[in-house]
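hey can u check if this looks right to u? its 295 residues, i copy pasted from the old doc so theres a chance i mangled smth
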Amino acid sequence: MNIDYYRIFLKVAETHSLTATAEQIGYTQSGVSHIMSQLELEFGFPLIMRNKSGAAITQNGEQLLPLIRDIVNRDEQLHQAAADIKGIRAGRLSVGAFTSVAIHWLPKIIKEFNILYPNIEFDISIGDYKRLEDMVSHEEVDCGFTTGTMCKNMHFTPLKQDRLLALLPISHPLASGDSLPIEAIRDMDLIIPGEGYGYDIGRILKQAGIKPNIKYSVSDDYVAISMVENGLGMTIMPELIVTGSHGKVAILELEPKHSRTIGIATRLNVNTSPACKAFLEFVRLWVNARLPYES
């Protein structure tokens, strides 16, 4: 059993490409191909199917993925625990986050965290709410920044209330107000941004009994802002996304007020590595010091 080979298999499963895997880990493509052949020889059946678009994981390979990921994670925890016993916090930490946290929080958090723990390396994965839930549940990441909406089967530590704001074209008749009555959304063309309708936006509109006129759905929040700027409709976005946006739009607080709860999630009933424990505590203190929680 070669743990490094298992890590490479997980990377191939993530990238669906031998070439991309080789580039990311500093190997040659032929080297990665040889390692996969060695693993297939060890297990006695194919793990990947090579095709024009890359490498697809076989059904047998998919069955092994959770077990191999578990072995790799436990090996990392073992080495971190040994380092912790010696008084040296070291290891690799994988963190998931949605885009706004990744842009506005993570770089500052990691920079300050690495002052205290310079031997901890980071793997950062970006995804929407559903992808982050899956990454935490399947232990693809050690922890993930997400919202309370998505954490029914995970341990969730709330960190910050993030206001939900209405974005309107500056030419809209209601754009000059201080707030937007949520009832007014009934008569507007709604642009659904990256999170999709199934989460915070859908939640508050359902609570208000509003069936919106969804005109457009886009996978990128900043594209949605540009569409509002060009008069294609209005959207609802968290304040953290709007922060730093250069779009020429009217930003109004919703009436009544609404927010999402940003927090950090880990998998239930799984031993957290020393590096992850240190990071979780650091994040909690960092956010509390700079962005106090408001209920």
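The mean pLDDT is 89.
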